[in-house]
Structure formats: C-alpha cells, structure tokens
Specification:
FBPase_N; alpha+beta; 34% helix; binds 6-O-phosphono-alpha-D-fructofuranose; globular; metal-binding; 8-stranded mixed beta sheet
Amino acid sequence: MSALLNSIFGFIMEATRPTFPSITLTQHLIEEQKKHNNTTADLRLLIEVTSRACKLISYHVRKGALGEACGSANSENIQGEIQKKLDILSNNILLEANAWGGSLSAMASEEMEGIYLIPDCFPRGNYLLLFDPLDGSSNIDVNVSIGTIFSVLRCLDDHTPTEQSFLQRGSYQVAAGYTIYGPQTSLVLTTGYGVHCFTLDQEIGSWILTHRDMRIPCDTCEYAINASNQRHWHAPVQRYINELVDGIDSIRKKDFNMRWIASMVSDVHRILHRGGIFIYPADNRTPNKHGKLRLMYEANPMAFIIEQAGGAATNGKKRILDIHPKSLHERVAVFLGSKNEVDRVTRYHLED
Ligand code: P6P
C-alpha cells in the first residue's frame, strides 16, 4: 500500500514541479558578470555580438546548395588554401558585426593576412578578437558539420594595436568558444569559469544553456587522427598510435575506436561530450612547419576550452597555452582531450 502511495505522491510532485524558464546566453553572462569581475560588460557585449554573428553564419550554412554562398570562391587565403564563398562571407559577417560595438580595438582571422583595425569612425575597446570564421570548410559541400572558432585577448596597447599586440600566450585569453553547425547549432563557451554549451532555439533565435560545466573523462577508448599520414609521423606518434591499433594485444590491454571528421570543431565537440584524444601532429612532410593547425585561432581557443573542462592540450612537448607566439598565423602540433591520454603521448615525446 505504501509503495502505491509513494508512486502517487511522486507523480503529483513531478506533475506540479515548477518548470523554471530556460537560461539564455545573456542571463548566463549576467550571472557570470555578478560572480566574476573579469566578465565585464564590454566582454559580455562582445560575446553576445559574436554569438549573433554566428547565428547569421548558421543561417547561410543551413541553406547549402539553395543559397548563393555555396561552392568555391576561386581564391586563396593567406594559408594558401582555396577559399569557399562561405569562408569569405563568414569572415565578413564577423568583421561587420564586431566593428561598431566599442568592445574591440582590432580583429585577426585565418582568412586575412594582417590584422583588422577598428575604423576611426567607431569607438575602440579593450579587447582583441581572433577567429577561424568557418573551420572545416572542406566539409561544406558534403553536408558535414563545420564551425566557427573564436578567441578573446585583452588589448594591452592603449587601443592602437599592431600584429605584435596579438602575440600573447594562450593562457592570456579572457574567453574562447566555438559554434558548431550540425544537426543542432550549438555554442560552446568559456570565460575561465568552466565550459558551457548553448543550443540555438531556432524558433525564437535564442542560445539556451543545455550543458553547464562540461567535463572530459580522464580516460578514453576513442582517438581522432588522420591515419592516412601514418608513414610521415615521428616516432613517438607511431609508438602511441600503434599501441591503440594493437588494442588489447598491446600494453594498453584494451581496444580503441577511431573517428576522424576532418572538422576540428566536430572532433572537439565529441571529445567534450564523451572524452577522446584529438591529434594533428607535426610530421616529416613539412619539417619547417609544426603541424597544420593554427596556434592563435584554432589551437589556443580549443586548448583553453579543453583545459577548462578538465582535459589537457599540448604540442607533444609543452602545454599549448604556454607557447609564446612568434607570428599571427603560426602553426602548431595539437594533442588534446582526455588528460591521461594526452599525458601519455606527451611523455612518449619527452622520452624520445
Ligand atoms: P586533414 C580543417 O581544414 C582543419 O583545419 C581542421 O578542422 C581539421 O581537423 C583538419 O584541418 C583536417 O585536416 O589533413 O585531415 O584534411
């Protein structure tokens, strides 16, 4: 009899439980502003403006072949990569959205050789914004998830920054985030107080907090690397990946699974949700480059997010966030994700 009463009571409680309104990005940022003094009103405005720009990018990405921004732009960016029309459109959307607000003094992008100074007709502010406007854009035409990655630094040069002003270590970032344009459009953000994920409510156009304080498991059975480059890898990476491939027959005594989406944002988003290790190593193909991914607007923001979620991020030898940048578009090897795996592959490099 008591079991029946308990289940009836439980049903009544559940049915009458007040459903609190969902928390929007704005509410979350105001909460953070109250709790932490580094989330200034200017930084809050910058994040909100950038998130609105990403909504517009998402609108164009979702149009696909029905939109005017599909296909190649028949031009190359500073990286020597063929630009998609959406690369250029996304870059311009972010520049136009952030030019007038007064939070920024300058911007830098994967798609632009030099920095973009806020025009004299607009007020300048205390921050610098760096972004990869559309990461993974080779996946656009085949309908695979892509994203926007952004990083925020303080402007330390009284509103007249140069390229040198951007060359700050990743540990100096005040905020970092990415949006992923996939089955859902999501925004993942850190301002140094944990990692939080917001899902875009397409009906009302609001970013709704759906995952607070995301945490990456220290261990994993999943790794992400472009295995077609195996013959070019350096010895520590060969050693580490061979153990994962040999699985239960290796010293690891367990089998592993592999994923490679060729879209960093997508691979990182999976790792944030269920753990894993993402690797884009330097290799013998280009001895003078340190890998493919860019330090300032890919590796640094992702490393900040991963560390804030309890993971680790190194270049194989040292913490990515401790690297002192020498140029705006410099590249870096990336090992990031579940801490115990990143620590192991980093140890293999140091033992080499
Ligand atoms: P590969 C996309 O071009 C990107 O910069 C990352 O998003 C992705 O992880 C990587 O390059 C894929 O590189 O050599 O496998 O095509």
